[in-house]
Amino acid sequence: MKPLNLVTLLIFLAASSWVLTRSETSVRQIQKSYYSIISPFVASGSIMETKIRAFDDEVEHSQTLSTKLKLTETELVKLSTEIEHLQKLEKENVQLRAALDFKERTPFSVIAAKVIRRKPSNWWETAHIDRGENHGISPMLAVIAAEGLVGKVDRPDDETSTVILLTDEACQVSAQVIGTHEFGILSGQRAQNGDNPMLRLRYLSRDSNVKVGQQVITTGKGELFEKGIALGTIVDVIRGPLYTEAQVKPAVNFADLETVFVLKK
Fold first, then answer.
1. Domain enclosing residue 118, as ranges
2. 119: left (phi over 0), alpha (psi -120 to 50) or beta
């Protein structure tokens, strides 16, 4: 046996013998002293145990709340996705109803089409629609929306077509200012910026009395665009030495172009 264990055993035997030789009163006194010594530790242990149990309960409660929070977040994402889908469907339904209504009341014979692609770098110049030669589309047909002129067909393929937009500098239209005898050439402008491209109405007479707020429409000259299609509203007038020029806000919102109509010959 190791010396330390032997010493410990001898001390324990001596203490036991001493206790057994004491009187009952002495033993009780010893017990009382022992309990008075260890009672603070027992009490502290009980308090500590209570705190540990409370901490365990709090941890378990926090884990339950965390699980519920994750489930709630999952449901929220699911509901947000469903709401977004429903809003998209509602928007499409509104557009479809508007398109059907326009097709019924327009005096022109039209083919409805959806804008399927636009390049971010030159979105104001061209657009691609989901109708082509197989649907009766041919080059140079006018393209309109419910609000006014969109542009003209450039290159039709079998199933799709490229449309030159009115906001492109290459698309030029014979135009008239409503309420006047003023005629000019309307086109897009080079280097368009922002979401609201403007149009340029040139070759108005030098002493023209056109004003801001007047409407501009097609004249029907050239037989490319029908007469009376809305083009836009004058927002500025610039008078030059030879002729007057006007800035025109398009009737069509080219930044949010989705449904169009191709005018059939």
1. 110-265
2. beta
Q: Rounded to the nearest 10 degrees, how much is the dihedral formed by the CA atoms of 226, 227, 232, 234?
A: 150
In DSSP notation, 228-243 reads T-EEEEEEEEEE-SS-
Global pTM reads 0.65
Quote the tokens at residue 50: 């209570």
Note the pLDDT tens digit of each residue in 127-162: 999 999 999 999 999 999 989 999 999 989 999 999
Tens of pLDDT, residues 33-54: 655 655 565 555 566 667 666 6
Whole-number Å distance between alpha carbons of 183 and 204: 6
The two tokens of residue 248 are: 């025109």
Number of neighbouring beta carbons within 10 Å of residue 16: 10
| DSSP reduced 3-state for 72 | helix
Number of domain units in the chain: 1
